[in-house]
Design a protein that fits this description.
The protein has three helices and two strands. It is of the alpha+beta class and 89 residues long. The chain binds NADP nicotinamide-adenine-dinucleotide phosphate.
Length: 89
């Protein structure tokens, strides 16, 4: 996206830029000329998400697109719990 001209990127994850690989990506993209922000935010928490978007609206252009890649996998071996999860979905 940055190679194709994107200049303002925000990344949301619960850990923000605290992990070394996240900090490295922020630096690489910034070095390429992008304005990059990595916020610690649980996207399933509406109030946290609203607060981050409010902050972004103060200094960044309007959001033009969003890519959702958040995921948490839970592997369970208990057949009763598995049956319950299948029923819930
Ligand atoms: N890996 C594969 O082979 C594969 C294949 C097909 C599809 N996908 C899909 O691609 C997506 C990403 O997969 P991945 O392998 O890249 O997983 P991943 O490395 O575990 O990345 C998931 C990301 O989601 C963030 N996250 C999780 N819960 C969050 C929340 N509540 N709020 C904000 N951020 C949250 C995590 O950061 P924090 O923990 O810091 O929040 C992490 O950065 C998923 O939707 C997955 O279904 C993956």
């Amino acid at each position: 996206m940055v190679d194709r001209g994107a200049r303002n990127l925000i990344f949301l994850s619960r850990s923000g830029a605290s992990k070394p690989e996240a900090a490295k990506l922020v630096k690489e993209l910034s070095d390429d000329g992008a304005n990059v922000h990595a916020f610690a935010c649980d996207v399933s928490d509406e109030s946290q998400l609203k607060e981050v978007l409010r902050k972004c609206a103060e200094s960044l252009p309007p959001v033009r697109g969003a890519i959702q890649g958040a995921m948490v996998l839970q592997v369970r071996t208990d057949s009763g719990q598995l049956a319950q999860m299948i029923e819930l979905t």
